[in-house]
Design a protein that fits this description.
The structure is a single chain. The protein is 44% helix and 13% strand. With 329 residues, it is an alpha/beta fold. The strands form two sheets. A five-stranded mixed β-sheet has the order 1-2-4-3-5. Strands 6-7-8 form a three-stranded mixed β-sheet, with helices on one face. Helix 4 packs parallel to helix 8. It starts with a helix and ends with a helix. The C terminus is likely disordered. Bound molecules: zinc ion. The site of zinc ion has 3 residues, from loops.
């Protein structure tokens, strides 16, 4: 009887653990398979031996991938701007065309001169690339953003189409690939130890979605680094702020992750805003947020802007009209 009970229990476990279909919406999230790429540049999949998204990547492997990417591409510079309490390097990449990278010191000093507002500086703007920076994974358990950083950096390093080459010629991209490596690794080690299927589970009640306290959101001392930009107590915020001042990008984007039942938030944020901020701080994020919304809706994501929820609407023109109308509120 006991043997039969174990057999039935074993059978049940087998069926339960294999009950989920392999849901991979490759059409929706494919990484531009038709893109012309430089085969000499190692992709995340070649290096890590799995598809991005199939597993979370330990920080040491993320670091190793970016070193290899930089060594194999004239478009990517690898740099460490600090160290966490647990000794992990804080890394940023500088990505641009090979020609710009060779001349990066000169381009950077012209950019800084221009930002000082000197008359001579204004003339220097002609032909200057725009500076944009991206930061990822400040909340360690929003771990998909550093996975995305690997794909973005790879795409910029390897793509050979006209559009990418044009972007690289006209811009310098600075990528802070993971602001909070200690929190990220705390989450990733925990997740891997809880995961029971070969694939990520799509069952919300699965233990792999029930991260306990203190979780990976915070740094080594369980401090939320996204609350440290003013006080600058921790090496993660201090290091990034010092590095940021060396580049002063025109646009900075900070990537987070939402829960699967939440809407994707994008600029503009809710009011009231600090009245002392220049108008550009209101209009710039609104302009970028509209474009982001457009792209998210085109892949059927539900987005959140300001305080208003935008649901999926079939007609794209109607959506854009609604977005503009709401942004005026
Ligand atoms: Zn976050």
């Amino acid at each position: 009887m006991l043997k039969n009970t174990f057999s039935i229990f074993g059978l049940l476990l087998f069926f339960l653990s294999n009950a989920q279909p392999d849901i991979v919406d490759k059409d929706r999230f494919s990484f531009e398979p038709e893109l012309e790429i430089n085969e000499k540049i190692p992709s995340p999949k070649t290096f890590l031996k799995y598809d991005l998204g199939a597993s979370f990547t330990l920080y040491a492997d993320v670091e190793a991938y970016f070193k290899v990417l930089s060594a194999s591409s004239g478009r990517v510079l690898y740099h460490e701007y600090g160290q966490t309490y647990e000794g992990r390097p804080l890394i940023n990449l500088v990505i641009s065309s090979e020609e710009n990278i060779k001349n990066i010191d000169n381009i950077k000093s012209k950019h800084m001169l221009f930002l000082q507002g000197a008359e001579a500086g204004k003339a220097l703007l002609k032909g200057q690339p725009i500076f944009t920076s991206f930061s990822y994974n400040i909340h360690g358990n929003e771990a998909s953003s550093t996975e995305a950083a690997m794909q973005v950096a790879y795409r910029m390093a390897a793509a050979q189409d006209n559009e990418t080459e044009e972007v690289l010629k006209n811009s310098v991209i600075i990528m802070y690939i993971c602001i909070n490596p200690d929190g990220r690794d705390r989450y990733v080690y925990w997740y891997k130890s809880m995961k029971r299927l070969k694939r990520p589970s799509n069952e919300p009640q699965d233990i792999e979605h029930m991260e306990g306290w203190p979780g990976g959101r915070t740094n080594h001392y369980w401090f939320d680094i996204n609350r440290d930009w003013v006080w600058q107590v921790h090496p993660e915020a201090r290091g990034l702020s010092e590095e940021y001042q060396k580049w002063l990008p025109q646009v900075h984007v900070d990537y987070h992750e939402q829960g699967y039942n939440n809407n994707y938030f994008t600029a503009p944020g809710t009011t009231p805003r600090n009245q002392l901020l220049p108008t550009l701080m209101k209009d710039g994020p609104k302009f970028l947020g509209m474009q982001t919304s457009h792209n998210l809706i085109s892949i059927r994501s539900i987005i959140l802007q300001g305080i208003v929820l935008i649901s999926f609407i079939q007609d794209m023109d109607q959506v854009i009209q609604v977005l503009w109308a709401l942004s005026e509120c």
